[in-house]
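Give me the fold.
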Amino acid sequence: MAGPRGVSWDRARLLASPWFASVRHVVERLPAERFPALDELNALARERNARSGDGAAIVFVPAAERGRGLANHYEVRAFRAGEVQTRPDSWHDLFNALAWLAFPRTKAMLNRLHHDELVRRWGEPNRGTARDVLTLFDEGGVIVACADPTLAGLLAAFRWKELFWARRAEAVAAMRFLVFGHAILERALAPYKAVTAKALVIDVAAQAAALPAAALADALDARAAEYFERPGALDSTGALHPLPVLGIPGWTAENEDPSYYDDKKVFRPGRTGAREGS
């Protein structure tokens, strides 16, 4: 199956890429020779006991023409019936399914919050800040586990070269970057320097930062779900830090040269912000 820009299914490539560390334990269960089918994704959903924000069992179903009315909205249908509309042979929709399988608690929380906002604001011309935050993270989120608060501060302060070059060894030891957003996973099929995610930084102990990716994803799933349930979590998109993902050590050979971080169009100086606390 050919994906965006002619990219064909290659499970080995996904397994070898740091972009897919968060979902590698799921990708390992997918067919090696062809694009996954819905029944295979649904078997994994049952195994993972993936549930919607209302507790309905998640089932990936063929996408249908969207009808009118609140009940036919994608998020509402997922919330109430557990039906996640998934186009066949769609990389974007496959990566959304992988996020449900790797981060079921966070996806359920986002689904519930989307649903509640839709019910509350149905008929209004603008979707509002809360749904903007939810969409930004759902599509473009990266969960950053960080065992050193000073490094988290550098990320929040946009001090990219100091973080990823001057303190590179410390960043490698104390920080883990797990992609959540399915649009960022899709970008990995044809990456470019300016790909920027929205980072939720979660403080962890040093032992947690050293966990295998699957165990870490499970732990961060619970923490991220808790974060979005907190009062104020959806008040501003500024709480999620911009993160140029190809600046992460090991994500491209090009960033082994310190001049890589001198590109101000990508590694921009900017605001400071908060992080999710312990």
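Residues 104-121 form the longest helix (18 residues).
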